[in-house]
Amino acid sequence: MRGSGRVGDVTIMAETSDAQGRGLAPASPLITAACAAIIGCIVVGVLYVGRDLLIPLALALLLSFVLSPLVGRAKKLGAPRTPAVIVVTLSAFLLLFGLSAIIAGQVGQLAADLPQYQSTMRQKAQSVREITGGSRTLERAAELLQSLGQELNAPAVGGRTLGPDGKPIEAERKPDQPLPVEIHSPPPTPLQNLQAILEPLIHPLATTGIVLIFVIFILLQREDLRNRLMSLAGAHDIQRTTAALDDAAKRLSRLLLTQLAINVAFGIGIGCGLALIGVPSAALWGILAAVLRFVPYIGAIISAIFPLVLAAAVDPGWSMLIWTAVLFAVVEPIVGHVVEPLAYGRSTGLSPVAVVVAATFWTALWGPIGLVLATPLTVCLVVLGRHVQALRFLDVMFGDRPSLSPPELFYQRMLVGDPAEAAEKAEEFLRERSLSAYYEEVALPGLMLASRDALSGALDERRIATVRGAADELVEDLDEWDDADPEPPVDQTQDIESVDAVERAEPSASAAALPDASPVQALKVRCVGARGPIDQAAAGVVRQVLEKHGMAATLEADDFLSTTSVVELDGPGRTVILLASLAPSEAHLRLAVRRIRRRAPGATVVLGCWSAEGDAGETAMRRAGADAVGRSLPEVVALCLAAGEPQPETGVAEAPALAAVT
Q1: Which CATH number fits domain 514-657: 2.40.40.20, 3.40.50.1100, 3.40.50.2300, 3.30.420.40?
Q2: 0.70 cut: is pTM over it?
Q3: Mean pLDDT of the region 74-96
Q4: Between β-strands 604-609 and 628-630, what pairing exists: parallel, antiparallel or unpaired?
Q5: Reduced to 3 states, what is the DSSP secondary structure of residue 141?
Q6: What is the CA radius of gyration of the chain?
Q7: pLDDT tens for each residue of 388-439
């Protein structure tokens, strides 16, 4: 490992020297930040200036993600790609046109019925006045403002100005004063009337046509667009990038379809409920509720305002208003806190702050349509950021994942001496993964960070003792858990930090699938840290996992490897001495193994080196003189189990027969 680091240093030095030879200097952080700010301003400007084209494109992208699974299903049924795309797209747009026709009809009917509700509103206002004691303060203020407005903006009639009493003010006209002239345009022709009707519809129809064309071509050229995106992202690993983009597309499609289905169900529930209550235009308010629910946090509240106002205007009493409020107060929490967690599994992947910032940003750029598209667009960007390395900053900025990795968060809690919170997060992780997986993916990498800082002098003795004590207390808190994978159905955790740790965990990190030691083996494992208290804490972790697999494991004292320590191998049976090292040094490990050999010549020495990577690192660790080298917790457990297995000829396993599990 040291050799590989030296090669990296030499390469970096060579590149630096070559850059200096060409007269190039590395960019300072200030210049990098300035360039990023300039690029950001350019992107925002393009989004604002080109919104007439980019809004249809964004709508088309979202619709293509929604319709892509339907096209795939049609292809599985034997339909050719082009007809499947055209049929699915046209069917979706016909459905949208049908909903638009329903909305137009409902709005027209509502406008025609509004005059009927005036008397009811007057009665409601009178009842409110009676409830508040008949105060006319607001009415007198309104009358005063109305009279002032009449005085300031009195209309002219026949060249004469109306006074406060409504009568024309007579004024003497001078002989040379021109007469006021009014110009009246001629009545519009039928063609002009038709133009006035169609002109407001031209822009929406043009936008719809552009969206339709974009959706068809995106669905037809899906693979080609994916390859171009890979080229723009600068992908070098084609296989991995292709799999990542396909996975991102599937996740986005599933997420958007789920969100669409939930919002449609919410709209249907609201529409049916309002129809049963008797609120007019129930279908209109159901469609509005489904659309506005794409707006985070406040969408459902906004959709409830119009039905509430209309219910107050229609019903002479208050029962319709109360039932309408109850409907929204019951349906929205059920959908938001029961249905959505079950449907999404965990979360949409956005942090709450990112949702608010995205809604503000897209609304400022694109208006109301930007408010509706804010969450879906931001989810698309975050998913791409998680799968495309060049766009990873989007996941860091807007994603709900913690900014620090699980090992870094573990190390942070150990530094402040907070094993209770670490144990709480560990128990959330253990709802879906095994105990050994938690140690391998979170605890041991976190202790590796501590070991690195301790060796570099960044941690003083007090901090090192705090980390050691917190780690030992955590291991004790988790002693009640078995090293076993949870049986289905798995109770998934909803904690964001634990979700991130579970998703990062590799299946090979768990030792739960390994068998337990046989009682007849009489195997004793003595665990000891190779170098300092942090390694000793790692040895305590390994000791606990070995005990979970039926081995008689003990944690030796800190001075086990000192020259004054006396090693006693007690009782019959095979003895394994496990040497745990988080920052292995070949010279230091060779010395530690030599001391173990000198004082316990019959013991099998297993070396656990978690930071040894690659063949060069494994070879260096083998030169230390150990019988076997494990580079992960499952490998170490497997090696200790193999040390106690009887051989066909000799009855016990010989030390040279052990080999690292690869």
Answers
A1: 3.40.50.2300
A2: no
A3: 89
A4: parallel
A5: helix
A6: 37
A7: 677 778 887 887 777 788 999 999 999 999 999 999 999 989 988 899 999 9
Alpha-carbon span 429 to 432, nearest angstrom: 6
Q: Which pLDDT belongs to residue 544?
A: 93
**Exposed, middle or buried by CB within 10 Å (0-12, 13-18, 19+), for 98?**
exposed
Cα torsion 493, 497, 500, 506 to 10°: value is -80
Q: What is the pLDDT of residues 40-68, one digit of tens each?
A: 899 889 988 988 888 888 888 888 888 88
Q: What is the token pair recorded at 354?
A: 């990112």
Buried b / exposed e along 158-192 (16+ C-beta atoms within 10 A):
eeeeeeeeeeeeeeeeeeeeeeeeeeeeeeeeeee
d(CA 191, CA 197): 10
Measured over the CA atoms of residue 531, residue 534, residue 540 and residue 542, the dihedral's sign is: negative
DSSP, collapsed to helix, strand or coil, labels residue 627 as: coil
Q: Which amino acid is residue 632, in one-letter code?
A: S
Closest CA to 635 of 656, 605, 659: 659
Between residues 500 and 619, the one the model is more confident about: 500
Q: How far apart are CA 484 and CA 513, in angstroms?
A: 8
Beta bridge partners of 578: 527, 606
What one-letter code names the amino acid at 304?
Answer: A
Residue/partner pairs of 634-639 with CB below 8 Å, 24 or more apart: 634/436, 634/440, 634/508, 634/509, 634/510, 634/511, 634/514, 634/661, 635/660, 635/661, 636/542, 636/578, 636/606, 636/608, 637/436, 637/511, 637/514, 637/545, 637/546, 637/549, 638/511, 638/514, 639/606
Under 8 Å between Cβ of 493 and 429: yes
- Regarding predicted confidence, which is higher, 21 or 378? 378
Q: What is the distance between the alpha carbons of residues 405 and 497, in angstroms, rounded to a whole number? A: 9
**Mean pLDDT confidence for 460-487:** 90
Domain residue ranges in the chain: 32-110+201-220, 259-398, 406-508, 514-657
Which amino acid is located at 42 in the chain?
I
Residue in this structure with the two tokens 């076993």, named with its chain if needed: 484
For residue 92, give every residue at least 6 positions away whose Cβ sits within 8 Å of its Cβ, in sequence order, or none.
63, 66, 67
In 3D space, the residue among 293, 316, 306 whose CA is nearest the CA of residue 125 turns out to be 316
| Per-residue pLDDT reduced to its tens digit, 215-226 | 999 888 887 887
Gap between the Cα atoms of 426 and 480, Å rounded: 12
Considering only CA atoms, which of 537, 404, 407 is closest in space to residue 464? Answer: 537
Query: How do strand 552-555 and strand 523-529 relate by DSSP bridges?
Result: parallel
